[in-house]
């Protein structure tokens, strides 16, 4: 596998992000890009693979398929896995782990069972060749192997990423219900924020949306703070090429006249947000204050709101619909000239905002199906909405 050789890869992501991930991969040099459910297939060489890992804001991991075959039972899975010359991929002194996903395949009891059969095939191959076997490591293995079984079709891939790409490395403190960094980056992308106008998160939690926005504004790659990727353990790893990839991303020099502002009512959340912003090196660009959003005065000049308010799921809110109604009233009263985007799984709560939805996306925050809705806040919005409601 030389650096110039093109091969197929698969980028995993969240449902709803496939199309914008496909667009992003094209900008990173990928070819033959095809969206699928929760994944995008594409082609490229090692240079593209390194870039996808380092610079994709929307992928969770990048897999390189190495063998596909029919697996109708545990024996055929074992046989297919054994057809790969594993001793050419890693050596007896290196550790490995296996992650399996099984869909519509009743012949396999569960994904753990499939993982064990592939592990046995690898271990037996090494034992037959060298008289000993490499060790399995749950944490920080040298090689990560992905097994995907759909019906009778099995694919084994090398995981080039390692720890999920959503773990950027700047989150110093954990919020009670943290928004996944990949989803936060997607919200900024979907919003159409032009990186040249005010951006406000009135219920910012640990600040993830603002941090992802700041990193996009400054062209800071999502992998900038990361120490290691799985592909760095591969035999064909090219450290010089990897250096070139990192060097190709130059951080923008920005002195914005606009503001990135976050507000949260909880002192603990504000502390977490400020610490995460410092860890990301964005303290000159993002301001966080402790306040009730009802009392917050937004920056002049209009701009964007992107926020992830409580859903009434993991965060307990006494009256979730009143919270959303108050937020809608606040936007009508004080945010004229802003474009607002709100993500929530609370369908009834979203209705309580009582504003016209001009666009929406269906996204997933973990297992929760959410709506990401756009509201355009013009002068006189409150009067217009009141008339619309009265006419219903």
Structural account:
This protein has 2 domains: 7-159, VC0802-like (2-Layer Sandwich); 181-220 and 249-391, 3-Layer(aba) Sandwich (Rossmann fold). It has 12 helices and 14 strands. The strands form 2 sheets. Strands 2-3-1-4-7-6-5 form a 7-stranded mixed sheet. The chain is α/β, with parallel strands linked by helices and 392 residues long. Helix 2 (46-55) crosses helix 8 and helix 3 (74-82) packs across helix 5.
Mean pLDDT: 92
How many individual β-strands? 14
Structural class: alpha/beta
Largest β sheet strand count, sense and barrel closure: 7 strands, mixed
How many domains? The number is 2
Distance between the termini: 64 Å
- Proportion of residues in extended strands: 15-25%
Helical coverage, percent range:
25-40%
The shape, in one word, is elongated
Named CATH architecture of the largest domain: 3-Layer(aba) Sandwich
Q: What's the SSE pattern?
A: EHEEHEHHEHEEHEHHEHEEHEHEEH
In CATH, the topology of the largest domain is named Rossmann fold
Taking all Cα atoms into account, the compactness measure Rg is: 24 Å
Number of helices: 12
List the helices and strands and how they pair.
Elements: E1 7-12, H1 18-27, E2 31-36, E3 39-44, H2 46-55, E4 61-70, H3 74-82, H4 86-89, E5 96-103, H5 111-130, E6 143-150, E7 153-159, H6 181-191, E8 198-201, H7 208-218, H8 239-247, E9 260-264, H9 267-279, E10 286-290, E11 303-307, H10 320-334, E12 338-344, H11 347-351, E13 359-365, E14 368-376, H12 381-391
Parallel strand pairs: 5-6, 8-9, 8-11, 9-10, 11-12
Antiparallel strand pairs: 1-3, 1-4, 2-3, 4-7, 6-7, 12-14, 13-14
Helix pairs in contact: 2-8, 3-5, 6-7
């Amino acid at each position: 596998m030389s650096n110039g050789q093109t091969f197929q890869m698969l980028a995993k992501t969240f449902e709803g992000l496939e199309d914008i991930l496909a667009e992003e991969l094209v900008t990173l040099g990928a070819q033959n890009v095809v969206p699928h459910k929760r994944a995008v297939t594409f082609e490229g060489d090692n240079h593209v693979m390194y870039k996808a890992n380092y610079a994709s804001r929307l992928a969770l991991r990048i897999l390189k398929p190495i063998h596909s075959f029919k697996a109708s039972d545990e024996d055929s899975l074992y046989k297919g896995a054994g057809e790969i010359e594993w001793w050419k991929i890693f050596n007896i002194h290196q550790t490995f782990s296996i992650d399996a996903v099984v869909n519509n395949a009743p012949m396999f009891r569960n994904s753990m069972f499939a993982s064990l059969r592939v592990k046995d095939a690898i271990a037996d191959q090494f034992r037959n060749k060298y008289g000993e076997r490499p060790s399995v490591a749950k944490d920080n293995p040298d090689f990560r192997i992905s097994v995907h079984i759909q019906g009778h079709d099995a694919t084994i891939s090398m995981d080039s990423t390692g720890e999920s790409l959503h773990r950027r490395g700047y989150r110093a403190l954990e919020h009670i219900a943290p928004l996944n960094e990949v989803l936060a980056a997607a919200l900024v992308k979907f919003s159409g924020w032009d990186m040249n106008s005010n951006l406000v998160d009135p219920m910012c939690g640990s600040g993830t949306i603002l941090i992802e926005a700041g990193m996009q504004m400054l062209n800071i790659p999502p992998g900038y703070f990361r120490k290691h990727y799985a592909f760095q353990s591969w035999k064909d790893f090219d450290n010089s090429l990897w250096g070139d990839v990192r060097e190709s991303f130059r951080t923008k020099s920005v002195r914005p006249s606009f503001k990135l502002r976050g507000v949260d009512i909880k002192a603990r959340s504000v502390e977490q947000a400020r610490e995460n912003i410092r860890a990301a090196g964005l303290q000159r660009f993002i301001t966080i204050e402790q306040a009730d959003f009802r009392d917050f005065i937004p920056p002049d000049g209009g701009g964007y709101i992107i926020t992830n308010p409580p859903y009434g799921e993991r965060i307990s809110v006494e009256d979730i619909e009143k919270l959303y109604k108050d937020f809608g009233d606040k936007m009508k009263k004080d945010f004229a000239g802003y474009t607002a985007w709100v993500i929530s799984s609370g369908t009834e709560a979203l209705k309580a905002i009582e504003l016209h939805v001009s666009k929406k996306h269906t996204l997933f925050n973990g297992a929760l199906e959410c709506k990401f809705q756009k509201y355009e806040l013009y002068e006189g919005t409150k009067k217009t909405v009141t008339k619309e409601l009265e006419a219903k």
